[in-house]
């Protein structure tokens, strides 16, 4: 929580929020719809607001979450919906009493919202809630995992009616779960009684800004990729980035170990890792974060990894990225750039 309050300075992120030195967003070709520009661009977040999460509905409406109090001059507390023409939805107004960090649609007419809030959709909900996409956006009266800390990251389980969640919590969904859990999308949102990779808190690295899990991605092959401030997860000694099985207890793959580090600071752990984006077209995992070495290669803040084997850097669609940078791959691109997913990842000069 301290990390976000201290380091975020109003940049917009798509799909996943990023970090101070990291590239804040990675959009592989399979996710191109998420970076479509709303036209006309009428929506404005006022009073120095910040947008951390964006999710687009199939009807073209866009939900935004973050830290803001007004949109288009209308009061909106940290979450709002923008119509397909760029105007504010004046009816849908669930209101969160603190930050919103992540959004995901459940496919049943609801949006799952994660963050640092205690109340949302007119109901007490700690860290995570399920909101209706109709009406005013009321919280589901039954679904209440009730985390005892903030929920920072989440992704749907492509192989079941579940959602993976990560953050700075130790209990969620009625179970003791350190920083990572798989919740049912139905009923009360109970945590899976068996799946428990149990990441540690990272061994007390004082200069790491996030305690817990900061990013999650899951594929259709039964793998769950997790990033965060941990040194041990799924029964293995793995630092900051791991591949877990969706089966059983969530055991970590001991051979997949990209081991991101800050080599410039005596090989210490990254300040932050995230987001993680799976590109199903080229079978690659894009990893952003505060590191300068990963997968056995020197890479500054952005790398394309193989999701199999040992997680080596893939040297070979376009990738959209944003963050606190002024140039990338030798070209001036302040804050946002379009990169080739092939070859060296050259920046688009246009």
List the helices and strands and how they pair.
Layout: H1 2-7, E1 23-27, E2 50-56, E3 62-67, E4 70-71, E5 74-75, E6 79-82, E7 100-105, E8 110-115, E9 119-120, E10 123-124, E11 128-132, E12 151-156, E13 162-167, E14 171-172, E15 175-176, E16 180-184, E17 213-218, E18 223-228, E19 241-245, E20 273-279, E21 284-289, E22 293-294, E23 297-298, E24 302-305, E25 318-323, E26 327-328, E27 331-332, E28 336-340
Antiparallel strand pairs: 1-25, 2-3, 3-6, 4-5, 7-8, 8-11, 9-10, 12-13, 13-16, 14-15, 17-18, 18-19, 20-21, 21-24, 22-23, 25-28, 26-27
Question: How does this model look, in words?
Answer:
With 350 residues, the chain is an all-beta fold. The chain has one domain: Methylamine Dehydrogenase, Chain H, CATH 2.130.10. 2% of the residues lie in helices and 35% in strands. The chain contains one helix and 28 strands. A hairpin with a 2-residue loop joins strand 22 and strand 23 (297-298). The two termini are 37 Å apart.
In short:
The chain has 350 residues and is mostly beta strands. It has one helix and 28 strands.
Rg result: 19 Å
Q: What is the CATH homologous superfamily assignment?
A: YVTN repeat-like/Quinoprotein amine dehydrogenase
Mass-distribution shape: globular
Percent of residues in helices: under 10%
The CATH architecture designation is 7 Propeller
- Which strands sit side by side, in order, in the main sheet? 1-25-28
What kind of oligomer do you see?
A: single chain
The class by helix and strand makeup works out as mainly beta
The average pLDDT score comes to 79
Which stretches are poorly predicted, pLDDT < 50 over at least 5 residues? 1-42, 204-209, 344-348
The CATH topology name reads: Methylamine Dehydrogenase, Chain H
Q: Note the main sheet.
A: 3 strands, antiparallel
- Output the helix-strand order: HEEEEEEEEEEEEEEEEEEEEEEEEEEEE
Q: Note the total helix count.
A: 1
How many individual β-strands?
Answer: 28
**What is the domain tally?**
1
Beta fraction of the residues? Answer: 25-35%
User: What is the rounded distance between the termini?
Assistant: 37 Å
CATH first level: Mainly Beta
């Amino acid at each position: 929580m301290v990390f976000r309050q201290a380091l975020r300075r109003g940049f917009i992120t798509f799909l996943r929020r990023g970090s101070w030195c990291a590239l804040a967003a990675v959009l592989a070709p399979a996710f191109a719809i998420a970076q479509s520009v709303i036209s006309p661009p009428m929506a404005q977040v006022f009073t120095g607001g910040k947008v951390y999460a964006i999710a687009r509905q199939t009807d073209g409406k866009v939900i935004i979450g973050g830290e803001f109090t007004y949109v288009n001059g209308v009061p909106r507390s940290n979450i709002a919906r923008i119509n397909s023409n760029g105007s504010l939805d004046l009816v849908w107004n669930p209101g969160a009493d603190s930050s919103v960090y992540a959004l995901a649609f459940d496919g049943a007419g609801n949006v799952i919202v994660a963050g640092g809030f205690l109340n949302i959709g007119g109901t007490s909900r700690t860290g995570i809630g399920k909101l209706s996409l109709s009406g005013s956006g009321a919280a589901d009266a039954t679904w209440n995992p009730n985390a005892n800390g903030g929920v920072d990251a989440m992704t749907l389980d492509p192989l079941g009616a579940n959602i993976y969640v990560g953050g700075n919590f130790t209990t969620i969904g009625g179970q003791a779960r350190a920083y990572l859990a798989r919740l049912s999308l139905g009923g009360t949102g109970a945590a899976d009684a068996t799946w428990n990779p149990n990441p540690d808190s990272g061994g007390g690295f004082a200069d790491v800004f996030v305690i817990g899990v900061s990013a999650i991605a899951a594929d259709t092959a039964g793998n769950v990729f997790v990033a965060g401030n941990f040194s041990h997860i799924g029964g293995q000694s793995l630092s900051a980035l791991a591949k877990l099985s969706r089966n059983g207890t969530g055991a970590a793959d001991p051979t997949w170990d990209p081991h991101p580090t800050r080599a410039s600071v005596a090989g210490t752990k990254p300040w932050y890792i995230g987001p993680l984006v799976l590109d199903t077209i080229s079978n690659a995992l894009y990893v952003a974060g505060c590191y300068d070495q990963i997968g056995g290669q020197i890479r500054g803040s952005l790398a394309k990894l193989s999701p199999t084997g040992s997680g080596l850097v893939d040297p070979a669609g376009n990738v959209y990225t944003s963050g606190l940078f002024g140039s990338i791959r030798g070209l001036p691109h302040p804050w946002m750039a379009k990169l080739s997913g092939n070859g060296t990842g050259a920046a688009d000069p246009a």
